[in-house]
Write a structure and sequence with these properties.
The protein is built from five helices and eleven strands; from the N terminus they run αβαβααβββββββββα. It is an alpha+beta fold and 276 residues long. The protein has a single domain, classed as Jelly Rolls (Sandwich), CATH 2.60.120. The strands form three sheets. It has a six-stranded antiparallel sheet. The chain has a three-stranded antiparallel sheet with strand order 8-7-10, with no helix packed on it. A two-stranded antiparallel ribbon has the order 4-5.
Amino acid sequence: MSTATLQESTTSPVTAPAMRTEMTPEERYLFDLQGYLVVPNALSPAQLCELNAIMDRRIADEVDPEATQHRFYSPDSLLSWGAAYRELLDNPRVLPHITEMVGPHPRFDHDYADIIRSGHSPIGATLHGGGAPFDECCFYTHKDGRIRCGLMVVAYNLHDVNPGDGGFGAVPGSHKANFPFPAQWHGLDQRHPCVTPVTGPAGTAIIFSEAMTHGALPWRAKHERRTLFYKYSPGSISWSAQYYDAEKYPDLTERQRAMLEAPNARYAHRPQAKRG
Ligand SMILES: O=C(O)CCC(=O)C(=O)O
């Protein structure tokens, strides 16, 4: 693939139907090829409205109006922000991707939300991740006909990200790299041509493997960037050193509760925390 074809990837050519239970062959091909996938309309207009309204209130209460960026990251989790945020745990628009690539018993590993008004994101403008050296938590592999991700991210755009704005930057294919990413290309203030900006309107989900080299391109738009990060691991492993407490959220379904369990093999009849 030439570098030219990797520039300014907006929405992927894959337009998914509203509800389905499986990834399409095209999505499978693209994710394996690139290490990421763009899922348009992963949030409905009503969901976007509600998620943004809740975030507006959090920003008004917690964020300095002069701040250029802020990360909401706490043990309370975005799940404590309301039902609209809890519903995203098993959002049917991306659940087929999660269960196929993370496994049939995914764990919700950790979550946070970033707002960026200008320039660098809360993690700066440096790439991280990559297929080499091998990372036993953030691995990407293919076995028995199935993609397997050690840590997979669903990043939701709550505001539009247009070409030229900045935002998520990916090195397509780097989840399968056999050599470390060259250190002198890590900085994103001067993006190396192998880094592709991945854009999309509000409601878009970018699903990516943490094994892919990626980072936040400096934000250049006039409007605020708002992104939710929901991260999933196979049921038996954890990146995070902190685990969720499903008891805090009584409205969760059984499936959602299972996703919040601490790492374990999800064998049948395992001891469960008592409810209520
Ligand atoms: O801002 C982005 O889209 C990248 C975020 C990221 O890589 C991270 O939070 O680890």
